[in-house]
Amino acid sequence: MKIVTCFKWVNDEADIKVAANSNELVFDRVGYKISDYDRSAIEEAVCLKEKHGGSVVAVTVGEPTAKQSLKDALSRGPEKACFINDPSFINLEPSQTMAILADTIGKMEYDLIICGEGSSDLYAQQVGPGLAEKLGIPCATNVNKLTYVEEDKTIIAERRLEDGVEVVAIPLPALVTVLPDINTPRIPTLKQVLGAAKKPVEKVTLNELGQQYEPRLREISVRGATMERRRLRFGAEPVDIKAVIDALLKEGIIA
């Protein structure tokens, strides 16, 4: 089975600060990492390869500095990577990312594409389904368990929904987006990290894609969420306990 797994190089949310005189987010000293959701996607792709054989290609889109992500991704098990890069690929919106991925992956041989359910930064949950639509293949989202049936060339996916679990059978080629609880991503060993530097990386530029990917959104600002606390204090008397319950009922926290 030929597997393609997509990942994104995102800001490390632990380094993001909020400006003291406003609620604007500050990215001056922020670090980067592979999106936590995409680590699960890479891990699931590698686990399927280890169990059934085949190959795994890790694909990412970003500006040239995002090449730092390749070593981390390759140390987690894929045989090679595809790095689609251009200086203009900064803060891409989902419509751009899915179009770029579709133009690149559409030229590859693949049986299964695995994406994270969303990214750690935007969590728009649009790239996976949009990519499947552009490639004309079936898609299953919110997947927390995957089983490959070799005889039928079919993927059995368990989807976690709000009111239960749905089990679907999908003929290959197909695309799935996986939830973080589908697995526990491995921590690469020193040997795996050193070996990642020797793995092949195919680089694709905007000129090779042969078209422009115009944004459809205009970012005005990025602000931190604010939470106003009422700072109410309640005692242990029956009247105070009733006041707490009434407040919770009013806010819909309890029913």
Automatic annotation (TrEMBL):
Domain Electron transfer flavoprotein alpha/beta-subunit N-terminal per the UniProt entry, residue ranges: 22-213
Xref: InterPro entries: ET-Flavoprotein_bsu_CS, ETF_a/b_N, ETF_b, ETF_beta_N, Rossmann-like_a/b/a_fold
One GO term in the molecular function aspect is:
electron transfer activity
A Pfam family per the record: ETF
Q: Which cofactor(s) does the record list? A: AMP
Q: What family does the Swiss-Prot or TrEMBL record give for this protein?
A: Belongs to the ETF beta-subunit/FixA family.
Q: Which PANTHER family match?
A: ELECTRON TRANSFER FLAVOPROTEIN BETA-SUBUNIT (PTHR21294), PROTEIN FIXA (PTHR21294:SF17)
Please give the name of this protein: Electron transfer flavoprotein small subunit
Q: Which organism is it from?
A: Pelotomaculum schinkii
Which taxonomic lineage does the organism of this UniProt entry have? Answer: Bacteria, Bacillati, Bacillota, Clostridia, Eubacteriales
